[in-house]
Amino acid sequence: MSDDIANLRKFVAPEIVFGAGARKTVANFARSFGARKILLVSDPGVQAAGWVTEVAQDLQMGGFEYELFTDVSPNPRSEEVMKGAQLYTQHGCNLIVAVGGGSPMDCAKGIGIVATHNRHILEFEGVDTIEMAIPPLIFIPTTAGTSADVSQFAIINDQQERMKISIVSKAVVPDVSLIDPETTVTMDPFLTACTGVDALVHAIEAFVSTGSGPLTDMHALDAIRLVNDNLVALVKDPTDLKLREQVMLGSMKAGLAFSNAILGAVHAMSHSLGGFLDLPHGMCNAMLLEHVIGFNFKSAEDKFRVVAETMGIDTRGMNNLMVHKRLQDRVIQLKRDVGLVEGLASRGVNLSDIPELSAKAIKDPCILTNPRRSSKRDVEVVYEEAL
Ligand SMILES: [Fe+2]
Q1: How far is the CA of 169 from the centre of ligand 1 (A)?
Q2: How many of the other CB atoms lie within 10 Å of CB of 101?
Q3: On the CB side of 211, how many CA atoms lie within 13 Å of its CA?
Q4: For 41-80, what is each residue's pLDDT tens digit?
Q5: What pTM was computed for the model?
Q6: Closest Cα partner for 27 from 92, 90, 95, 89?
Q7: Separation of 387 CA from ligand 1 center, angstroms?
Q8: Whose CA is closest to 223, among 150, 159, 283, 277?
């Protein structure tokens, strides 16, 4: 590829409705896609919070039949995708609505892929592996962080191999994302912290990614600012709707940025970790963030200076070494303020696990856009620092 073409950038996004009450437009959108029967995908936690019943009622009032599928784990498993796809086909569905966090949304993407291609979901690992258009997807996120509702990523857990696979394709960008901050009030402070830090990591990784550009940078920087300015206050007062809205806006912008600029070593390493230990994704990212910044800093010094400034650090008069240190300190402080202080060892990772974790991480597509090229040994050293 010539340099001119390699430097071109594209930007893919769903149709987005943002704001309190956005979820209530679901039946209108289902109608505009000619829905006949809908597969409604969620998980038991979101169902218990009451959001599934509400969306189901709205669909019924709109005159739609639906089939409910809530058999989705916190890290969605390949078998769950296959089961959901079977249900989709068996009931003659022609549209998927997902309500929930990243897990039901990623599972819904997988269901759409399998229902169209009639092959196992694990065969679609990698970039641009999807050949046919998948059914219309309408997503209603109930967390503010994963951004599966705007992204071209689906992350599925392969239980047998104890790893997560990444599927990256514009085919899995939902058609419609109904982003409604009211749905996030049912998140507890821990989940709010995990998903908020995930959004911050999305924004930082997208900004320093080798796939970044003007179409994504503005969203990435806005997201860093919104999460940095509002997340700590939100974790202290999870009922504040204004703060919910600001963090959700930050999450959405981070999602638009990373979906198009892709991510980096934090996500490559955290996918490997999350598959290995079945830990919350945002927590895995949090345990790795400052260590990956340390590894990457020299390869993107000017960009990390902008990240530092966007996180409120006055870098005037500082050399790069000082900016590096202050940025890492700021990240550690923010994590501490939202209660994410653990290292890998406290979650059961041993030194002897690191070679296997690293071997999987360097195969993850997210490593390809990391600003610094990373060998298996490099990744091992970062895991060791994060123990
Ligand atoms: Fe993430």
Answers
A1: 16
A2: 30
A3: 20
A4: 999 999 999 999 999 999 999 999 999 999 999 889 999 9
A5: 0.92
A6: 95
A7: 20
A8: 150
